[in-house]
Design a protein that fits this description.
Layout lengths: L6 H11 L7 H29 L14 E3 L5 E3 L4 H8 L1 H33 L3 H12 L6 H12 L4 H8 L13 H26 L2 H9 L4 H12 L1 H15 L4 H6 L7 H11 L3 H26 L2
Antiparallel strand pairs: 1-2
Helix pairs in contact: 2-14, 3-4, 4-8, 4-11, 8-11, 9-10, 11-14, 13-14
Length: about 300
């Protein structure tokens, strides 16, 4: 006796992996347009940068050689220059820039968490009217130019700035303090600029936390501090990780803050990339730096997302 193959099971399983089979014409185009947007504006430029990173720097326009060339009628030659990536590993100039940028990004992320979580928690526990006011005040920083905010810190911390002038008039110091041009000042600028990126994700997650869990813990005799560490913190883990990723990924490649608040010895990945591209006109090394920085950012973020399932 022949058994009949259950075709309905096959098609039901296939639709799970190929969702375009069950979408209408409008739904198909709504899904394909963002995909084309990502391919044209992200994947294609990334492939161009990757190609240039394997080229050789030459005195020409554009200042790099072709990695693919025809040497004969039926011969295609591929030349890959690995010297740029080897220099990233062996040259202390690039390794120190990577270490400095990583330490600055990690420090800024930790400080943003220590400051941002209490802020988000306080906004979450505020009344409705006060909550809207605090969120508005927090978002005011996005209403002004990023460059203007950094220049404001320059005027505040310079030798003739408001802080040194106030300390001199109060008699606390005898000579102006050298506040600009240090890694601490650069870290301060990163925290000031990217603190809202930590507060908003944490606040959004805290708003979704069911208060009945905390009330049940209190009814069972759990102290408020213990309930905070055992219930609130674990339930807000996704917001903390999202805020940490946003702050770290944007801080590690920052150029404006180290350039304006640092000095010539403040070597970071963003400044090295700028110097290679515009000062040295070494596009191949600049593209290799971009690829290396992207790998250093995307790989930990990807692993963290897989581990935390966010």
């Amino acid at each position: 006796m022949k058994t009949k193959f259950p075709t309905h099971v096959f098609f039901s399983k296939s639709r799970k992996f190929f969702p375009f089979h069950r979408t209408s014409g409008a739904g198909f185009w709504l899904g394909i347009v963002p995909l084309l947007w990502v391919l044209v504006l992200f994947v294609l430029p990334l492939l161009i940068v990757l190609k240039v990173s394997f080229a050789e720097s030459v005195f020409a326009i554009p200042p790099f050689s072709e990695i693919i060339s025809f040497t004969g009628e039926y011969f295609l030659e591929l030349k890959l220059n690995l010297g740029n990536y080897a220099a990233l590993l062996h040259d202390t100039y690039y390794t120190s820039a990577f270490i400095n940028s990583t330490l600055l990004a990690v420090t800024a992320t930790v400080i943003c968490f220590l400051l941002g979580f209490p802020m988000a928690y306080g906004i979450h526990n505020s009344s409705k009217n006060l909550k809207l006011l605090l969120l508005l005040l927090l978002s005011l920083s996005f209403w002004t130019s990023f460059l203007i905010r950094i220049y404001a810190w320059m005027n505040l911390l310079s030798c003739n700035g408001l802080l040194n002038s106030a300390l001199l008039k109060l008699g606390i110091i005898d000579a102006p303090l050298q506040l600009l041009g240090t890694y601490s000042t650069v870290c301060l600028g990163l925290v000031f600029c990217y603190l809202p990126f930590m507060v908003f994700p944490v606040y959004a997650v805290l708003e979704k936390v069911d208060r009945s869990y905390i009330e049940a813990a209190h009814d069972l005799g759990c102290p408020p501090t213990k309930a905070f560490w055992t219930i609130t913190i674990p339930l807000s883990k996704s917001g903390i990780l999202t805020g940490g990723i946003l702050v770290f990924a944007t801080s590690i490649g920052e150029f404006t803050v180290p350039e304006l608040l640092g000095d010539a010895e403040t070597i970071t990945f963003g400044r090295v990339l700028w110097n290679e591209f515009f000062s040295n006109l070494d596009w191949t090394m600049a593209c290799a730096l971009s690829i290396a920085m992207m790998i250093c950012v995307v790989l930990p973020v990807f692993l963290l997302q897989r581990r935390a399932r966010i």
